[in-house]
Write a structure and sequence with these properties.
The chain is α/β, with parallel strands linked by helices. It is built from 12 helices and 11 strands. Helix 9 links the parallel strand 6 and strand 7. Helix 1 crosses helix 2 and helix 8 packs parallel to helix 9. The termini are far apart. Belongs to the class IV-like SAM-binding methyltransferase superfamily. RNA methyltransferase TrmH family. This is RNA methyltransferase.
Length: about 270
């Protein structure tokens, strides 16, 4: 049992939780909680750390059995004293289990499935971890086939992002690009994907366009919105009508409205 926060493994986890650079160098990220443990792909789990109280319950044995990993339990698991485990959690009531999971690299081509038209989210300099996590989770539910992020966006493996995805981070293809304009726009043109930018000057309301063909929604930074330079290079400007004095919506909320309108159209063409 690990009984000290000075333990080398504990220090490594703390670095993975705090620094995106460490996550990239190690090729690992930390996922806390029973749901994240249960949904983690078996072939990507590097290590499982459990608080002593959680380990006593035996739930983890059932989960390992479901994953076909019970024979590797000794090598994969590590018991941690409860007070030490608490130092690894930023939640008020830790669930007692944390996994180290190997990072998966996706390609742009993996965002274009063979059996359906692509539906993409292109995020420019998104900064809020909760927004990104919500977009991933909502996107999976709405049938989004991939998420593209500018290099200055929040790290998708930030613990707050991970927690708010509720497992979708394991399944939703995503790709960080060095330049949306130089890499993504030409690729979209080649693949005949229409780019829609939510904009106050949009000609039509969002529900007056056809998203049954290959489509991508562009969402900008929480404070500044989509940059003028990028929005001018998208194909269509659309607007989300609002009453009162509201000028814009939360990035995750706007994304959800657009994604589910596309999903509605595709279910009822």
């Amino acid at each position: 049992m690990i009984t000290s926060i000075s333990n080398g493994q504990i220090k490594k986890i703390q670095q993975l939780l705090k620094k995106s650079r460490t996550r990239r160098e190690e090729g690992l990220f930390a996922a806390e909680g029973i749901k994240m443990f249960r949904e983690a792909p078996a072939d990507r789990i590097e290590k499982i750390y459990m608080g002593a109280s959680f380990a006593e319950k035996g739930t983890w044995k059932e989960i390992l059995r479901e994953k076909g990993l019970e024979g590797k339990a000794k090598d994969l698991t590590e018991i941690v004293e409860d007070k030490v485990f608490k130092s690894l959690s930023d939640t008020v009531t830790p669930q007692g289990v944390l996994c180290l999971v190997r990072i998966k690299d996706w390609s742009l081509e993996e965002m274009i499935p063979e059996n359906k038209e692509p539906l993409l989210m292109v995020l420019e300099d998104l900064q809020d971890p909760g927004n990104l996590g919500t977009i991933l989770r909502t996107g999976e539910g709405a049938g989004v086939t991939g998420i593209i992020l500018s290099k200055n966006s929040v790290d998708i493996y930030n613990p707050k992002v991970i927690r708010s995805t509720m497992g979708s981070v394991y399944r939703m293809p995503f790709y960080y690009t060095s330049s949306i304009q130089e890499e993504i726009l030409p690729w979209m043109k080649e693949k005949k994907i229409t780019g829609y930018a939510a904009h106050l000057e949009g000609k039509n309301n969002y529900d007056q366009e056809d998203y049954t063909k290959a489509a991508a929604f562009f969402i900008g930074n929480e404070g500044n919105g989509l940059s003028r330079e990028l929005s001018e290079k998208t194909d269509v400007w659309i607007r989300i009508p609002m009453e009162g004095k509201v000028e814009s919506l939360n990035a995750a909320m706007a994304s959800g409205i657009l994604m589910y309108e596309a999903f509605r159209q595709r279910r009822n063409p």
